[in-house]
Amino acid sequence: MKTYIAILKGINVGGHKKIMMADLRKMLCEISYIGEVNTYIQSGNIVFKASEENTDVLENLIQQKIADHYGFEVSTIVLSKENLSSIIDSNPYAEEEIKRLHCCFFKTDPILENRQKLETFDASPDAFTVGNSCMYICCATERYSKSNINNSVAEKILKIECTTRNWKTCTKLLEMLENL
């Protein structure tokens, strides 16, 4: 079995799409391909092992399980340990203060035209770099909520679903994957 993370978009934010992590862990263990489920904080960060290696299949299984149980859809991105490790190793802002760093994960690959539009977006004084399956964000301050580049901007320009995590969460998820 390989190790994976699943990151859920927009749960437990402002009282919307409430999912208890204990319920989520139990529910995901009911999926035959998935085992050893752990979660990190309440924002939908899941570390697990799976015998299924196709991340699209895993995404669909998790999304369907949540929809069946809760009655609402939650966009889900699944990455292997190797994918997340590569994303972390490729961070162009690794020397910056961790509180200023975020990673916006892409659910699908953006088309080239939209990617080029994002790459030329002026987010100053914030900095960002578009990677293969994500966007690295370095905020001018520690306030992502005040950043000129964020998840909503990325989704609007790229025309794909994205979800963002702070860098502390990214590194914690990799640590959890390595210890699973």
UniProtKB/TrEMBL annotation:
<dbReference type="InterPro" id="IPR012545">
    <property type="entry name" value="DUF1697"/>
</dbReference>
<dbReference type="Pfam" id="PF08002">
    <property type="entry name" value="DUF1697"/>
</dbReference>
<protein>
    <recommendedName>
        <fullName>DUF1697 domain-containing protein</fullName>
    </recommendedName>
</protein>
